[in-house]
Design brief:
With about 280 residues, the protein is an alpha+beta fold. The chain has two domains: about 1-105 and about 235-250, no CATH class; about 110-230, Jelly Rolls, CATH 2.60.120. It contains two helices and 14 strands, in the order H-H-E-E-E-E-E-E-E-E-E-E-E-E-E-E. Strands 3, 5, 9, 11 and 12 form a five-stranded antiparallel sheet that branches. A four-stranded antiparallel sheet has the order 1-2-13-14. A three-stranded antiparallel sheet has the order 4-10-6, with no helix packed on it.
Length: about 280
């Protein structure tokens, strides 16, 4: 029996070529999967980095707008500036962040009071302290409220009292002592209070029987809504990078107790109230 060496060699070479042909597609598939995985990881990393940058810019923009609110509040409370003045303010910082006031775009058209009790008062100022010579044209106040559900009395009557003053020759007169009291006898818990559009008012609310919650006062002039003048809305829009944040704060325009307790007097002498004599060590 004779072996054909040539045939064996050719068969071996064919087998090698066949094995090589099987490995090449597998290698290509593996390389493609590795590249695809690397691409996916890269996309996730890039998106995470982008979100981190946006979060950082968002926080910075928030503090830009917060600094704007603080600046406006400082000018209102400490420098006695007008609302028109603070609505024109803006600011730029060394890190490239900016803020601008947007308070003039958000006037408050009503006044919300969470609760009015039988033992305390809520005060509504129907005048503009920045302009005490021009009337606001408010001729009606629409008042609505709800009875405190924890109260066992059947109703929550509302007392509305007010004092007013007029402008004579451009000069505000002393407020009147007039009080106008409205006590609704039904359970509708709403009323219209007619006002003189040429006068300025300070309105006082108090309830009988039960506390009132969710008290809302809306104002109109000639049938059209009028912004409530007793509150101011300070609003600032901060920008840092590609992110913008906005903060708005509503508060009474007149800080009634401002400065009353801003100092303390120390004395070694006795305190005296009424008649008598002061003794000191």
């Amino acid at each position: 029996m004779r072996w054909n060496a040539t045939s064996r060699t050719e068969n071996y070479r064919a087998k090698v070529r066949k094995d090589v042909g099987n490995i090449l597609p597998l290698s290509m598939v593996m390389i493609f999967l590795i590249l695809l995985s690397a691409l996916g990881i890269g996309v996730v990393v890039m998106e995470g980095s982008q979100r981190a940058v946006e979060t950082d810019q968002s926080v910075s923009a928030y503090y830009m707008s917060d600094s704007g609110i603080e600046k406006q509040l400082y000018e209102i409370r400490k420098n006695n500036q007008t609302l028109a003045y603070v609505n024109a303010l803006d600011g730029t910082y060394i890190n490239g962040g900016t803020w601008e006031s947007t308070g003039d775009l958000e006037p408050t058209t009503s006044k919300q009071i969470q609760v009015v009790t039988t033992s305390s008062f809520a005060v509504l100022d129907i005048f503009d302290p920045d302009n005490l010579t021009t009337s606001l044209g408010i001729d009606n106040m629409r008042l609505t409220w709800q009875k405190d559900p924890s109260c066992t009395n059947p109703s929550a009557r509302m007392e509305v009292g007010y004092a007013y003053w007029e402008i004579v020759a451009g000069v505000p007169q002393f407020p009147s002592d007039n009080q106008f009291v409205v006590l609704p006898k039904n359970d509708a818990y709403s009323m219209n209070v007619p006002l003189d559009p040429n006068k300025f008012y300070r309105i006082r609310l108090r309830t009988y029987d039960c506390a009132a919650i969710n008290v809302n006062a809306a104002f109109t002039g000639s049938g059209a809504p009028v912004p409530y003048p007793g509150d101011i809305t300070l609003s600032a829009e901060g920008t840092f990078g590609k992110t913008t944040q906005k903060i708005a704060a509503t508060m009474p325009k007149l800080d009634i107790l401002s400065g009353v307790f801003s100092y303390v007097i120390f004395s070694e002498c006795t305190l005296l109230k009424g008649t008598g004599s002061i003794t000191c060590p």
